[in-house]
């Protein structure tokens, strides 16, 4: 049994100006004078008393639960991660809880603050809008280990698993270029998200490397959902009907683009080749099946689970970074041939 | 402040044969003789002392968290439910935690038992293999309200949201019959699951009602995943090449069947019409887009969230049952025309 951090029954009693027995009665929910209850609760709050820390001491501060906070439960990239995270943790005796934050920074910070109450022993999170200074502060204040999937600011003291979406975009554009495509459009997600920003830069770099000119008419920005992909594809086709390929910042956007091309009577890949990103389950559900850049979602999930488990089992150590390399899965939406 | 249920610091002290101050020291994690720590922990365990009940009393027993235990995070039917459950609870100030139990009964019971430790204020669950006697006992012992989405044994004292998949199968077979199909195959899920059993019975009833003979060659049973649907479709096509329609027990099975029909060069719906069930997001991603029986996943999720919220806010009352009626969403896999 280790010495408790922070306030105890004794310091609460002192601050509230009541006896230790009174604090104990309040904590046990026994009938107590209202004024005493109020004073004890105010003192506990003032002292930043974290209720569960009492409870946790009874079983060595373990809840046997771990949480994964994902940006959007509707995006199968997180599903692929969950499928890998869950068995790793389950084998070690941990139950996995999931949060869907809708990429809302306030929600993410709320989950991080919740770690102070120790309803889980650790957290894996994937903040779509990046790790802000508030995140960094909340991670430092958390009383449980945290692993971030995604980019973090240089030097942030947290375990981190990331991929290299620049190389991923490059793989896709090299593939389209090798197939003879020269008017390669780009349907991106919001530029204020980490993947959106990185992929925008990567698209320009890849064009440069291939000696293709950058043409603003060939670029459209929307959100990361299917209907945004459809909207963006319609706008781009209207403006640049000679487009012969569409690079999409994720698979959902690509599905929206496929819908629009089909309704417009444009053949895929005959008229327009389409490439998605994330290589989710949906890529093989779509028809034509979708060529997609794999950013190793399964590998990233597995690596994050292992980093967390290591911290849970072996305690504090220097933060680690794992980088998962991208690859390209070629299917019918670029070659006309379904490999499966 | 209400009177605590169950054991308190006082009863633990009595059983352990130590002073109340000693129990308090142990609960606070202060340095204490090893023998005393051991005696207090054993007494606490013997008395079924639930650690967090102490903590909870500090803030009126609310965690502001609610959990949804779903059978399979990979099945978009649960995604549709989460999308409706989350906003209802969020608006009332609750954070939603998700569990994916893989339809494992032991996991489901574990989640129910976890309610005794009060890491959430309430639970919505969707047990794919049905509500067993163990579930009923665990629900009764839970110290938090529970809502079950799915069938429960008659008279189980729990809030319940269900659909009517028999009518759903009937809608699909009526539609196929009206289109002139007479050799209607059935790709079902496991018969020991609640939906599998109900849909098997419904298929026979619907054939009877339409005056079509039951033919065992036209029925194949697998699991509820896409690869099972593919396997089942291959087996059925091999045995009954004259099949002119496939009723599938969920959308994932139907997607597997579409893959197999495409590779076999069988036109959909020209040669074989295909109907799915659950009307998930995938139905409109597939090509041809999939006609599917909607079992009101979104409505069921919303109803479950509201029932739970009512119990959380207004306390105990008689259990309620909500039945959501099915409907049929007609798309290209039966008519050749995509309505969207």
From TrEMBL, chains A, B:
Transmembrane regions listed in the UniProt entry: none
SUPFAM superfamilies reported in the protein's UniProt record: lambda repressor-like DNA-binding domains, Periplasmic binding protein-like I
Protein name as annotated: LacI family transcriptional regulator
CDD domains membership: HTH_LacI, PBP1_LacI_sugar_binding-like
Annotated Pfam families: LacI, Peripla_BP_3
Keyword set, alphabetical order: DNA-binding, Transcription, Transcription regulation
Residue ranges of every copy of the HTH lacI-type domain listed in the record: 7-60
Gene3D superfamilies associated with the record: 3.40.50.2300, lambda repressor-like DNA-binding domains (1.10.260.40)
């Amino acid at each position: 049994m280790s010495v408790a951090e922070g306030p105890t029954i004794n310091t609460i009693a002192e601050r509230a100006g009541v006896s230790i027995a009174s604090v104990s009665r309040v904590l046990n929910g026994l009938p107590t004078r209202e004024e005493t209850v109020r004073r004890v609760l105010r003192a506990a709050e003032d002292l930043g008393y974290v209720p569960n820390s009492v409870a946790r001491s009874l079983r060595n501060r373990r809840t046997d639960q771990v949480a994964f906070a994902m940006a959007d439960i509707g995006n199968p990239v997180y599903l692929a991660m969950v499928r890998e995270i869950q068995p790793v943790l389950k084998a070690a005796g941990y139950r996995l809880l999931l949060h869907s934050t809708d990429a809302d920074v306030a929600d993410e910070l709320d989950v991080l603050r919740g770690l102070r109450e120790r309803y889980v022993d650790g957290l894996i999170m994937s903040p779509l809008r990046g790790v802000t200074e508030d995140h960094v502060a909340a991670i430092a204040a958390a009383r449980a280990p945290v692993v971030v999937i995604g980019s973090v600011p240089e030097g942030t003291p947290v375990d981190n698993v990331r991929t290299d979406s620049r190389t991923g975009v490059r793989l896709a554009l090299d593939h389209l270029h090798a197939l003879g495509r020269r008017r390669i459009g780009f349907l991106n997600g919001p530029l204020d998200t980490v993947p959106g920003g990185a992929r925008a830069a990567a698209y320009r770099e890849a064009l440069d490397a291939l000696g293709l000119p950058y043409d603003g008419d060939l670029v459209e920005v929307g959100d990361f959902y299917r209907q945004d992909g459809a909207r963006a594809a319609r706008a781009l086709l209207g403006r640049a009907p000679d487009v012969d390929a569409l690079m999409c910042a994720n698979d959902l956007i690509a599905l929206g683009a496929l819908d629009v091309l089909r309704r417009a009577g444009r053949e895929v890949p005959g008229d327009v080749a389409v490439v998605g990103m994330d290589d989710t389950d949906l890529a093989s559900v779509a028809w034509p099946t979708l060529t997609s850049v794999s950013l190793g979602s399964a590998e990233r999930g597995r690596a994050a689970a292992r980093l967390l488990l290591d911290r849970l089992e072996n305690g504090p150590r220097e933060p680690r970074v794992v980088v998962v390399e991208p690859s390209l899965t070629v299917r019918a939406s670029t070659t006309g041939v379904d490999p499966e």
